[in-house]
Amino acid sequence: MIKLSIIIPFKNSEKSIIRTLKSIKIQNINSNIYEVLLINDFSNNKTIYKIKKYINDLENFKLYKSKKNTTGPGYARNLGVKYSKGKFILFLDSDDCLKKNCLIKILKKIDVIKSDIYAFGFSIIDQLNNMKRLQRHDLHLMRLDKIEIFKNYFDASIIPQVISNLFSRKFLIKNKIKFKEGYFEDILFFFKSIYYSKLIKTNNDIFYIKYNINNSIVNTISRRHILNHFKAYSDCYNFIAKKKFNNNYKTKLKYFYIKGIIGLTAVYINKVNRSNITKIKKNRLISNIHKIYSKILLASKIKYVYKTDKDKFVKKFFKIIDEKK
Q1: Which of 5, 228, 256, 299 could bridge across to 84 with cysteines, CB 3.0–4.6 Å?
Q2: What pLDDT shows up at residue 36?
Q3: Judging by beta carbons within 10 Å of its beta carbon (0-12, 13-18, 19+), is residue 29 exposed, middle or buried?
Q4: What whole-number distance in Å separates Cα of residue 106 and Cα of residue 7?
Q5: Full set of structural domains in the chain with CATH
């Protein structure tokens, strides 16, 4: 019986994929109880060759090809879920690794946990192989009641990514939880998972090692990345706003959502200003951020009170820009 399916979408990952696969192979556990599904998302370099050579004698490592060339790994991950046979699913990025001897601990937990989501710790390593973060900071928030979880989700206090979590396959299929195409596809997927979950369990142990890559989606700045990031949170709000809650609850959710959008705006203003791009491109991106921010606030029809430092920074920043026009 297969207990765990590890899904790895990849695209031109020839520099990192063998490190990722080695981190699984050295786990020293019975290969009959877990599978690794590698989804080729239209790679055009030597990644395929390296993978085929490495997994040649590994029967539980399976290679599939994405049928649709899309932006982001969402479609490939959906294929992985479709083809998977494990009781639980673990999403692993093609430039990350599993910590040594973590799978035996995870597989022991699978036999006893009854949760829909099992969240555990991860560490972050930078380009110079230095440890940037020793542990995941949001696990205690995952144990709160749902409205508090959603509040912290919109605030970005909860990390909106699927890595470093186990998902019950039955739970995902039953609730039809799938990834959207585009960048930041994790955000809505994880939000829906939290919403539908009956039980979330956490473990502070570090099982996952994330490598902070300069050209990764979260570290890339472009109009499309910015738009997809804001849209992902808007999709979360639009999803939950359609659910049956009392008006007081809905008002709170809208306030948390707008607060989070303003916080995200502050993050991108600073990110663009610190980036090594031309002044013309900076001005263009700032203008795009301003349009997205203004459109969301106008559509919300909420009288937001700017209280926090981030709030005041955004308000002052755009006031200066408006005065220059």
Answers
A1: 5
A2: 98
A3: middle
A4: 15
A5: 4-217 (3.90.550.10), 221-324 (no CATH)
* Entry pTM: 0.94
Cβ burial, residue 55 (10 Å; 0-12/13-18/19+): middle
Encode pLDDT of 272-317 as tens digits: 999 988 999 999 999 999 999 999 998 998 888 888 898 999 999 8
Decide: 297 and 306 in contact? Cβ < 8 Å: no
Q: 55-60 — which CB contacts under 8 Å span 24+ positions?
A: 55/21, 58/25, 58/31, 59/31, 60/31, 60/32, 60/34, 60/35, 60/36
Strands 200-211, 117-125: pairing is parallel
Q: How confident is the model at residue 325, as a pLDDT? A: 63
The tokens 């093609």 sit on which residue? 94
Structure tokens at 233: 């949170």
Burial classification of residue 5, based on how many CB atoms lie within 10 Å of its CB (0-12 exposed, 13-18 middle, 19 or more buried): buried
Euclidean distance between CA atoms 72 and 181, whole angstroms: 6
Residues of the chain scoring pLDDT < 50: none
Q: SS3 for 79?
A: helix
pLDDT of residue 250: 85
Interatomic CA distance for residues 267 and 31, integer angstroms: 43
Phi-psi region of 164 (alpha: psi -120 to 50; beta: other; left: phi over 0): left
User: From the CB of residue 101, how many other CB atoms can be counted at a distance below 10 Å?
Assistant: 12
Largest separation between any pair of C-alpha atoms in the chain? 66
Q: Mean pLDDT for the chain?
A: 91
d(CA 186, CA 249): 25
User: What are the tokens at 279?
Assistant: 């002044």
Comparing CA positions, the residue from 138, 178, 173 lying closest to residue 158 is 138
